[in-house]
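pinning this so it doesn't scroll away 📌
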Amino acid sequence: MTATQADLRIDRPSVADGAALWRIAKESGTLDVNSSYSYLLWCRDFAGTSAVARSEGGGPVGFVTGYVRPDAPETLLVWQVAVDGAYRGRGLAAALLDGLTARVAAERPLTTVETTITPGNTASERLFTSYAARHGADVTREVLFDTGLFPDGPHDPEVLYRIGPLTSA
């Protein structure tokens, strides 16, 4: 029996969720995986600008991490979005993104969402362009970090997607 989106709960992550977020990111096959330590810190220091989807048993099955840009306080930068393989294809990533931006917008002015996507990551491209359409916003794209800036070998460029102004978060 498979769980539906209605069987899931979206809330803030806690430090206890860090290991599961690291595992989901690692198993995604597309994300740059950060150290397990960074996911623990993220769940502690950026829980207010991140969200986790929990199964009926309470364990994380998806997440979105983000932060408010210090020099652009009305902009939420979405760092990573990942969903456990067993829960993909149900609109969970979109629900996480919508839920997070609604929560952030309820707490502070929010006019823009930013993220970076490597060329060819069609799932992320679709997620964020459909988010923009749902929220009546434009999408602009520009290379934020070119290939040559990465010190650890070949890396695709990171293209900045700027979504805004948001008409409804």
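📌 and the second one:
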Amino acid sequence: MRVLVVEPQTIVRASISALLSELPGIDVADATGSGRDVVSLALHSRADVVLMNADVEDTDGYALARTLREKGNGRIDIILRLSTTRVQDVQHALDAGATGILTRDSSPDVMADALDCVAKGRIFLEPATIRRLVTAAMSVPPHARAGEHPCLSELTDRELQILRLVARALNNRQIAAHLMISEGTVKAHLSRVLGKLRLASRTQAVVFAYDCGLVTPHPHERKSA
């Protein structure tokens, strides 16, 4: 995996580059502190992943992420490092095409996990970020939500069942037992659900289900959140 590091602070940029260089299977293709160089460097160095501080100099990090996705024809993954994980910031990052979101104080192990995750075609969010997104979705009263999402009409009854159970945090084995079907069938249904809803991961499916009002939190879920 070839990684382009984008970080305005010289010491931090050097530290991240050195850390990544020690990880097996990782090649630091280049590093820069300026947003003006990112697109050309990413394309010229044939970077697979751009690990970027969202507060990059000279440009809007979110707009830059969108440009990278467009210029790279979706081939380049972008992992954004955010100063905060406020819901609106995370949503902006995901909308911009980020396939991974880290905080400025994410540990080296978490950074390595993020790279491994996006390499496998999945979106990476830290557990605390996931909890914050789900909590925000659950905090909106059902009557205040936009109503049934138009994409839900594309799902079969069985696929809706699967999505509801996924949103209730059941794993594939538990869903299979609940519906008296095989785990393979559950995986096949879930794959079709993600495809029809244009979602990249199980986590996004959970947030989607709460956000569109397909499921609502039980009282004990509100307390734990």
